[in-house]
Inverse folding.
DNA sequence: TTGTACGCGTTATCAA
DNA sequence: TTGATAACGCGTACAA
């Protein structure tokens, strides 16, 4: 077993030919004689030669790797997106390097900075919450200015020159609410976040729009906007209290649209505590189709964000841009990915 | 805004000095005059100069990036491990490149192959199930022979020259079973995988050991070994059938130790279907503390694998080996990470 | 104090 | 048909 890694140089020396001959032989150039070619190839196979990626990257000024920066990785939506990115990237001969911002502005900047120095050809990212609230996007515009394209998904910044992949939260929420109404609900309640959280605001908007379109008056007792630093699992108990209070002051609610899984599960738990049955007394639809929904009791009907598709499209947009010869083409796209409702057992079947 | 990326060469030309002067000035070499230094530094800052990682990698024959290859990323345990890896790696100036095998032997080989050609300095990986059942590890030993170190975690191959990070599955399983017995269970059932899955086999062993140590005869009707390509969520229905059958042929079971979350939840579901109450009729302990356990109904008592720690230690071991000058040191370590039981509501409280 | 030359591994171009 | 050279961007030993 050759402990030394094979390079063109080593093969050349061993075979007593020049480096360029070896290179050409291996790439099957017709410049090289049949005999030499065979000799070189046999030797290369024996020594298990592989071209050195780094050298190629340096030469081609392309690394064929994508930098993905996300706020958090222990999170179903983001991992699904990564899955989609990997899948498409690999199929196109690209690798994926992952950076985590942990929702921190500084870590996001550092990540961007380290990777931008030649390690990657372009970024796919979802912005950290801190960055969003700081509204400081100079690191993003700077990397774009340096000629490194970015594709943003989900948490997106409006006026930034880059491709974007999003879900239409308003439409998705409308779908969910309509589904509840079609399933027979008379009073649909909403469990959302405070309005400063982007997705919460948009999904609330969708809720309102759906009701208005059906000519239903919006009862503010049916709307619950939770203060909730991070939709994590740690503050679950506090959430529970808030939701119980909400449900007990709006006894007539027979359908709930919750803007995420956790809220939906909390609502189900609270309802059950009040002796209500799901879906017979209250139907529930959540948002984001994660493991929780699938394994809830009963399994939760949800609006699927389609993370895999988001990832795939993001990778596609980025790679297309990377491989576009003319860098002039600055017609940035925003792709809206479709959502669909995954029917499970917290809603009645439609006939 | 400079659209062109700054290089030493460009700065040198612009300032009409030599490339090495610029290089030295930026690295604060005392060889360079104060004036020149300042001039160069100012210019570099203006042009936002950063050394090109790729060129450095080529020169140093080190990429300062770690390749992580895991079977699946939409999976709580693995993402927790990645989190730990990232955290330590970044603190040491390393990046992390992620490859997914999707439990496939071929994809694992391809991933290893593409990354091994200079893109990374070493691997951290958990082996695909298919690789495990094929028992074909030539790709692993070959990359090690090429001088690229591997650290394996969780799904580990015994006779392979590399560092390993594992949880003592036997002991952890024993703990779980003992906990059930201490909690009053008379007939503890096991839901595990077929024996060729390493962790399944070891946890089964722990189950058997715990019973033997208490002088309890092992009833083969109490043991269920599921055939299960990937513990994913897609084949849930099929799983359910198998578990239901198992439970109905062993009616006396009053405690279940399941080797993963999904199996545990499936068991709970099946038990409930049979009219049994949890924990009153059957107590349950799962393995791997993920979101599912936390939000199960009722919340599931589990053995926590401590993925973050596993990731951190893996990264530490790998980086230490990478930065070891003497490559001779082949005293490979196997670190055993401790597990603990997270008490929730599928077991009785101990007095 | 500054500049030249070299090498990391590869390929493209041009010369032999 | 083969070989030498340059270049990608960097750092450093050595020469000026």
């Amino acid at each position: 077993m050759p402990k030394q890694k094979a390079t063109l140089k080593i093969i050349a020396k061993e075979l007593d030919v020049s480096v360029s001959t070896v290179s050409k032989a291996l790439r099957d150039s017709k410049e090289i004689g049949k005999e030499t070619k065979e000799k070189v190839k046999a030797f290369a196979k024996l020594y298990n030669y592989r071209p050195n990626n780094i050298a190629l990257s340096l030469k081609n000024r392309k690394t064929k790797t994508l930098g993905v920066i996300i706020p958090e990785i222990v999170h179903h939506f983001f991992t699904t997106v990564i899955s989609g990115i990997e899948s498409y990237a690999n199929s196109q001969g690209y690798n994926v390097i992952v950076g985590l911002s942990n929702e921190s502005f500084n870590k996001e900047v550092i990540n961007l900075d380290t990777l931008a120095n030649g390690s990657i050809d372009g970024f796919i990212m979802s912005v950290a919450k801190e960055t969003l609230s700081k509204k400081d996007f100079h690191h993003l515009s700077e990397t774009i200015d340096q000629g490194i394209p970015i594709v943003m998904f989900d948490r997106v910044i409006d006026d930034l020159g880059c491709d974007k992949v999003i879900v239409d939260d308003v439409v998705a929420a409308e779908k969910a609410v309509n589904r509840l109404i079609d399933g027979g609900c008379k009073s649909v309640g909403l469990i959302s976040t405070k309005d400063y959280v982007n997705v919460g605001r948009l999904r609330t908007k969708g809720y309102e729009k759906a009701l208005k379109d059906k000519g239903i008056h919006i009862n503010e007792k049916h709307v619950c906007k939770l203060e909730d630093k991070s939709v994590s699992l740690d503050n679950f108990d506090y959430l529970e209290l808030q939701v119980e209070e909400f449900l007990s002051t709006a006894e007539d609610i027979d359908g709930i649209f919750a803007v995420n899984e956790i809220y939906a599960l909390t609502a189900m738990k609270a309802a059950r505590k009040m002796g209500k049955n799901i879906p017979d007394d209250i139907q529930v639809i959540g948002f984001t189709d994660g493991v929780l929904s699938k394994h809830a009791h009963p399994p939760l009907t949800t609006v699927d964000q389609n993370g895999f598709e988001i990832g795939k499209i993001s990778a596609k947009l980025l790679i297309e841009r990377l491989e576009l010869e003319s860098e002039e083409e600055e017609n940035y796209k925003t792709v809206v990915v479709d959502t669909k409702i995954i029917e499970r057992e917290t809603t009645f079947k439609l006939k």
Summary: The longest helix of chain A spans residues 307-323.
